[in-house]
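Thread: "does anyone have the structure for this chain?"

Original post by V.I.:
We have the sequence but no experimental structure in hand. Need at least a predicted one for the grant figures.
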Amino acid sequence: MANLARTIQGGIVTPLIILIFIAGSAPAQPQAAPPALVRYSFDDDLLDTGPDTFSVFQFGQGSVRLSTVYRFSGYRSVEIRDVAGDGSFPELQGYFPVRSKGKLYLHFAMMTTDAGEELNIALAGPQWFQLRKDGIAFWLKTANGYLAEISDSMPKKLFAIRAFAWYVVDAAYDIDAGTYDLTIRQEGLETPVADLRCQPNAASQPGSKVDKFSFIGDHDTDASNVVYYVDDVLVGVDEAIVRQPFVAPGRRKLFVDYWNSAQRARTAHPAPLPMMSLADLGIGPAETAALRQDGAGERLGQILSGRPAGVPDDLPDPSRTILQSVIAWREGARALTAGDAGLALARFELASRLSPSAPLFQMDAVMALAHLGRWDEADRRLAGIVTQWRDDPRLPATLAMIGLARGDLDAVERQLREHAESSGLMAEEYFLTLLWKGDSAGAEAFAGTMLARGSERGLWRERLGDAAFLTGDIQRARDRYEASLAEHPRPSSVWLKLSDVYFKLGDPEKERSFRERVYGGLRER
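Reply from O.Q.:
Generated one for you, C-alpha cells below.
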C-alpha cells in the first residue's frame, strides 16, 4: 500500500466540477470546528478548483473522468477506470485540514461494474498511504468478489459485493481511540449489509492523524481492469451532516436535474454551457495519451482551473493545438459570461478551428450567435450539430435558453405556423421555452398541435413526457414516454428518461432494465 499515492510525474491532472468547503487558517481565538471539511457532489458548474484541494491522477492507460452513465445523485459521478499491465493506476485524491483529535465522519457512494476486479479506498494522514501511525486510518478493498476492510493490519471480509449496485458507506473515525464504526447499505435493501462498531484502524494506531482520502484500482499487482463509480463524497466533524437517508436505488434524474440547475443559475442572456467531460473539448483517449507523453497534462489542468498557463513554444502537436484551443474556449466563455458576445464568438470559432471535433466549442458559438441575435446563422449551425447532442442532459435547457433569447414568443409561433414543415428545431425551442417560463399548459397545447400535424410524432410524445415529468406528474410522464418508443427515431434518450421515471415510482427492476438498455455493455468483458 506504500505506493497507493504518488507524486505527479507526467500524470494528467484534471480539475473536476465540484463543490468544496475547506476550513481556512486557524483563527486567533478558539472556535467550533466547521461541520463540513469537504463536500464533493460532482454536479456544480464551477471549474475554479485545483490540485491544492482535489486532484485526479491518470497514470498509465487508466482514467478518472466525470460521467453521466451512472450516478448516485444529481446527473454526474466520477468514473475510475484501471487497466491491467499498464504499470500504474488512476487515482481520485482529495485533501482537507489535518485532524489530530476528535471524530471524523466519512460518507460516499460507490458502484463497481465487476465484483471480481480489485479497487481500493483509503483515508490517510501526513504519512500518506502506509500502514503506520499517521498513515492509513481507514481502508476498504475488493478481492475475489468480496468487499473487505483492512483493520489491525489484517484484511477482513465484509460481504460479497454485487456489480452494478450502489453502496453507501458511512464511517465514523474516533481519532483518539484509533477505532471506527462502519455502516454500508446496498440499494434495494432496507437493512445494512455491514454494520460494525469499534473496529481498530488500519494500522491499529490510536491518535493517527488524517488529512486525505483516495480512490484507486489495484495498488501493487497491476492486474485490475476495474471500472467503478464514486459520488457524494463528504468528510465532516458533525455526524448529522454526513449521515444521509438512503433511498434505493440511489440515483436521481438526468435532464430534470440539469434543467433545474440551469434555471437556478439563469442569466439575462445565453450563457456558455458547463463542461461535463474532456470529450466536450475534443480530448479523447488518443489526445489524453499525447498530453501525458508530452508532459502537458498538468498544464491543461491549470488552464481549466482558470490559472495562468501559457503554451511552451517547443510543445509538439497535437498537445500544443489542444492547449491553444482550450485557452481560446476559456477566453470565449469568460467573454460571453461578461456579455461580450462578439469577442466570445471570435474565441469560440478559433477554438473550433483548432479542435473541430470539440462539441462544446460549437454549441457555445451558437449561444454567442443567439446573444448577438444572428438567428439565421445560429439556426443553421444548431441544426448541423443538434443530432450529436440528442442524448445530452444539457440540450433541453440549452434550447430553452436559445428560445428565450428570441424575445417575442408570439412572433416565433406565427413563424412556426407559416413554416410548419421546416421548423422542427425551432418548434422544440418554442415548446421548451414555454416550459422554462412555467407555462406548462401552453407547452402541452403546442405539443398537441405538433402531434396533430404528424411530424416527428415520437419526439413530440417524448416532449409531452418531459412536460409531465417537470410538473411532477410521473405516471403521466411514464405513459407518454412509453407511447413515444414505437415511433421514436432515437429511443435511447427515452430509455434514460423511463429509467428516471421508474426510479421515482420506486421500481428498481424496471429502473435498471431501461438504464442497462443504454449502458449494459459495461458487463461485457
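V.I.: this helps a lot. The chain is about 35% helix and 20% strand.
O.Q.: and Residues 13 and 169 are 26 Å apart (CA to CA).
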